[in-house]
Design brief:
The protein is 78% helix and 0% strand. The chain is built from 5 helices and no strands.
Length: 187
Amino acid sequence: MGMEELKQELEQSHAEFYQLLMELEQSHAQLEQMQMEFEESELLRKKMEIDLEQMKYHLEHTQGELAQTKSALHQTEGELDRYKYREAIASQIISEKEKEYKQLVWDAWSAYRSGNINQMVDCLQRSLKCTSLSRTKTVSNWVKSWREFSQQKGERFEVRRLDGYQEWKQLLRRMTVVKSGGNISPA
């Protein structure tokens, strides 16, 4: 092998080395680019997580506000219904005691619909002082009235559901033991 050939081979090796170096630098630049893109995507992912948490919090907050609004609307609707009923019985030609009795029976039904069983029982107990009906007829009147109130609301009233409440059963038991003057004796 002559000097010329050796020189050419050396130059070719040098060119190949240079080419390899260029490829290596290009790979390094690509790697750095990928690293930057990865870091950007990580930042984006973290931002999305924070945004998601904020959306979740906002949704829960909105749901809470919605539930409060719904509750307030339900309460306002109940108050309006009570006012309408009060107006309806005010025009009836009946005694003040009978009007009070009817209002208490309505209030008891409203409490029952809201799940406030203690208030229901309290209204029914108070209604006993305002009626001259026998205890049996009074219970029958409560059920009949509640059916009518429910129908007006497009609902179905099932008296059997009342039997599931201990407070209702206790009220019926107490109604069988009456003091003089028509008051319910304490349990």
